[in-house]
Design goal:
The chain is α+β, with helices and mostly antiparallel strands and about 90 residues long. It is built from three helices and three strands; from the N terminus they run E-E-H-E-H-H.
Amino acid sequence: MQLWINKSGRLMAYGNWRQYDTVRHHPGFAELARLVGQDHRSSMRGFAVADLGLDRLWPVVLRCARRINGQETTEEDRRASHGAESRIE
């Protein structure tokens, strides 16, 4: 995930599921993409971080990193994901 400030001064982010050949379309990105209303097998679009809230975004980002780096998710990760599955509309 990359962060930047847009022209309006909002903190924005986008997933890197197409950025690097070694992880292009990696299934570890799927949950993060779903959270922001996107598909990890498709293009990346920016989203406003404030629209999600850190308590929903950060656990998903950590699980994404663990999956991409070949680490197993924990039971605590799975429990935390229940509230983070809704999409931004």
